[in-house]
Design a protein that fits this description.
The protein has helices at 51-54, 82-90, and strands spanning 16-26, 35-39, 42-46, 61-66, 73-74, 92-97, 104-112. It is mainly β and 121 residues long. This is Laminin IV type A domain-containing protein.
């Protein structure tokens, strides 16, 4: 992962991350987390509540996620606390965006705003 996405990202709290996903393929959309953040031994995940209707093949889908604890949960499904998110952001070492959306996927592309982990003041 590029260095600009790692390390102390506490200033991202309260901001948004935005990216666009487009894929080609068939089959039901999987329910795996759309985003995974790891840091300080804590893993948080984000799932789009409406991802089964949101993602359609061969159509670009803009995704915006607010960087608040309400947008994330722990791996076990329990809600993330403010402390959890701030601990992850204090030493972010892994930032993943799901690339496989359907079982018979042929291709995928994502456009990521490189300023997504920065809060605008």
């Amino acid at each position: 992962m590029p260095q600009r996405f790692r390390g102390n990202k506490v200033t991202a709290y309260g901001g948004t991350m935005a990216f666009e996903i487009q894929y080609s393929g068939t089959g039901p959309v999987n329910g795996e987390p759309l985003v995974v953040l790891k840091g300080n031994g804590i893993t948080l995940v984000h799932r789009k509540k409406d991802q089964y209707g949101l993602f359609q093949p061969d159509r670009p889908v803009p995704v915006t996620i607010e960087t608040y604890e309400q947008s994330y949960e722990r791996e076990n499904g329990s809600p993330a606390s403010r402390e959890d998110l701030l601990m992850v952001l204090a030493d972010l070492d892994t930032f993943l965006i799901r690339a496989t959306h359907v079982p018979n996927q042929v291709s995928t592309s994502s456009f990521l705003n490189s300023k997504m982990l920065q809060r605008k003041f």
